[in-house]
């Protein structure tokens, strides 16, 4: 399992990644696209966002999203 | 601006490749990728496409001139957006550097799609562009050449590393076959 940018987020990341990988192979690829692992993601994500803020990467991300918003990927197709 | 292109055929089904792509790192061929984090993720309810935004943290040696220009840091960050269309069996990832992007912009697009003539294979295509900003235009040729070279090296290692991951996961039966 890959590491997280926040050393203190590794355990949460591992739990979330394990849940996601299982969902991806057993549900998503078989046509069931209903999301799972949401609670684990929320906990892991809060930790990561904190780490990003501490490392001052949050501003870089805000700038990048201005040019290329996350939601616009499909629209650009 | 300079460009890099590569293509490859993986002898695994698209389902196996796409599932393994989430587990590509860590692998011993790519020690420069030190962390990967999911920032945002959702399934588009209309299209069924899974979209993911990730932060990639890398650490690698760079020439002294570049290191000076880039403020002495060897840790760099990239933002990646991926789209997985399970119906058409296409995985597309685009990424762009977040660090020092006022000096140099490295954009990459990779696509993994099912081989239309053989579903047991997956076609891989990688394209990258490297462009230096105005402020360092006197070094543009040197810097762009360096990144094209580095990109090519990392692309080869990345492909080898991914082949190892694909093989390992197949052995463990950890991803579905097709």
UniProtKB/TrEMBL annotation, chain A:
Q: Which keywords annotate this record? A: Disulfide bond
Q: Which GO terms describe its molecular function?
A: phosphatidic acid transfer activity
Q: Which domain of life is it from?
A: Eukaryota
Keyword Disulfide bond annotated = yes
Matching InterPro entries, A to Z? MDM35_apoptosis
A Pfam family annotated for this UniProt entry: UPF0203
| Gene Ontology cellular-component terms listed | cytosol; mitochondrial intermembrane space; nucleus
Keyword Disulfide bond assigned to the entry: answer is: yes
Q: Known PANTHER family for this protein? A: TP53-REGULATED INHIBITOR OF APOPTOSIS 1 (PTHR46403:SF1)
Family, according to the entry, reads as follows:
Belongs to the TRIAP1/MDM35 family.
What name appears for this protein in its UniProt entry? 9101_t:CDS:1
The lineage is: Eukaryota, Fungi, Fungi incertae sedis, Mucoromycota, Glomeromycotina
Automatic annotation (TrEMBL), chain B:
Q: Which GO terms describe its cellular component?
A: mitochondrial intermembrane space
Q: Which InterPro entries match?
A: PRELI/MSF1_dom, Slowmo/Ups
Superkingdom of origin: Eukaryota
Q: Where is the PRELI/MSF1 domain?
A: 1-174
Q: PROSITE patterns under this entry? A: PRELI_MSF1
PANTHER family assigned = MSF1/PX19 RELATED
Q: What is this protein called?
A: 1381_t:CDS:1
- Which source organism does the UniProt entry give? Acaulospora morrowiae
